Each structure stands twice: as structure tokens, then as C-alpha cells.
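Before a colleague's protein record goes any further, I have to sign it off. What it holds is a sequence and that sequence's fold in C-alpha cell form. My question to you is simply how this chain folds and whether the C-alpha cells agree. Thanks in advance; the entry in question is below:
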Amino acid sequence: MNAAPAAASEAAPSFARRLADGYAAAALPRRADPSSLQRLEGRTMGTTWSLRFDNPRMLALSQVRAAVEDALDRVVAQMSHWEPDSVISRFNRAPPGSRHRLPREFASVLACALDWAHASGGALDPTVAPLVACWGFGPQAAAAAPDAHALADAAARVGWQRLCFELADASVLQPGGVVLDLSGIAKGFAVDHGVEALCALGLRDLLFEVGGELRGAGRRPGGLPWQVQVDAGDGPALRVPLADMAVATSGDRWQVREHAGRRWSHSIDPRTGRPVGPAVAGVTVLHAQCMQADALATVLTVLGPDEGLCFADAHGIAALFSVRAAEALEWRPSTAWKERRD
């Protein structure tokens, strides 16, 4: 998750950013209109959020906007490592041996991250921040590619197994030197959290997006599902329905660094300490929860097209890989993706 000012943002649209019916070009209504879908948008986490929703109760748009912004602000206040006073930043500065009681939302995200860290053998690691900074990303980004000494020093501080997390009382121990980074999952959670806030207002049919991660609830007027377009830059885009589903994508089309003739992705493999290879242009995941889809898109990108597809099939994950083949990009769907699309 990136909560830096917009000018410093590394956030960029993902493959699934564009809605099939082009919400981004529409003007925002001044008041609720029961005859059409309502549109709201704003900025958060160094990127944008967008909402389309059916408003049969004619709720004031200011009330709807406040619910979204309050939900997003809670996520930033807890999980943004760009904010010095956030919960995660205070934990990262805490002395060795200190135990910290986490807010409910933070504990939920950390539990999910650790579950997939364990299942994937560390392809997702919430302690990866020192390596991310080494390769020039995040709030503590280095200016150049790291040397062997810097990489070894960073790698020594990484390891999800070092965290002593107790879900029962939502607490975690700072063993010393651990720097949490929930960028691979917190934005998806922000989508879920926003949808929950909107449903609490009585809204049932909506499509909510933060920085390219989306979740659809209910359906469009007329009964059709919400739809998004998934594309990898070359060839025809795929249209994907979101009927009470979320979609998240990880890829290397935007967040890259270049130095001294070298170019590398922002996706860092915590197991090797190095950026992932260029074989995978992106991975899109469908899941009922955007938090899960976001985490899994990161996992599968790190695992790569072969190991990643095996992992997706073993865990019943609906995933679509965009792989750089000899001539062009090609789609490689998991079994669950093909079953969902058939």
C-alpha cells in the first residue's frame, strides 16, 4: 500500500483498472438520482479510488463519500508505512522484545499475509521491507541498485517466521529490526473495508475500486453483473464479470526502476532477495475477498508461470497469468479460472 503524496506515488493502474463501461470519463452528479448509477471518486494511498453504485434510497452523496473516506483513512492510519505515526510505522520503530496489541483490521490483514507466507514458502513475506528499500522502492528507497553487502544486510532482517503473532489477542512481538510492509495486501483490504462501510449504509449494488483493485457487490440495474476489462497491453482485452467477486492484479508494467543500464520490477522475491524475472507480465486473481485476491496476485507473481500455476491449481485459485512468450504475450489460466469462465 502506498500512502505517499500523489507526486511521490509509485501506485499505477493495474491490468484490471479499466471498467468495461468507462466510469472514469463520467461527470460526478451533484445529488442522488434514482434513475441512474451514482459515481464518486477521490484520492487515497497515493492513488485514486472510484465508486459506482445504485442508490434507490437516494442517500446524500456526501454521506456516501464520508463512509468511503472514513474507511480508507482507517486503513492508512493503521497500515501505511509512508505515514510516520501509523500503527505499522510505530511497530517498525519499536524496541526489541516489545509486544503490540493491534487494531482488528490490522490483525486481520497480518493474519492473512502470514497464512499465505506459510502456504507459499515465503513468496509473500510481510517483513520484506528492507529488501524492497534496497531495490529502490518504498519510503526508504535506495538511490541505486544494491551491492552484495547491502543485500546481505537487508536479507538478514527479513523472515516472516521471526514474527510472534498471536491471533487470539491480536498482538505481535517486535523481535528487533523487523520492518513490516503490507503493500502486497493492504490495498485489497481497503477495497473490502470500503465495501463493508457502504453495505452498512444499506447499499447493495456497487462497484468499488482502489488503485486498480476492484470488488463488485450485487449487480447493475437490469440484473447484469459488473464487468471489468483485463489486458496486458498487447492483443484483445478480456471482459471479466464480477458478481459478488473481487479482482486484483500484480504486474511489472508500471512500477520499475532503472539504473546503470539495468531495469527491474518492484516485485521482490523474499526468498532470493532479488526482483522477480521478466517472464510474468502480470497475474490477475478472482476471489470473493479483495484482500485475498491482492495477496494471491503477489504470491503467484513471485512464484512465476510454472510454479505459480501449479500453486494456483493446488489451492483452487482462479488466476490468469500474462506470460512473455517468444513472439508475444500469452494468457495462461488456472483450472479454477477456466471453470469460472466456462
User: Anything to note?
Assistant: The first strand starts at residue 38 and ends at 44. Residues 3-34 have pLDDT under 50 and may be disordered.
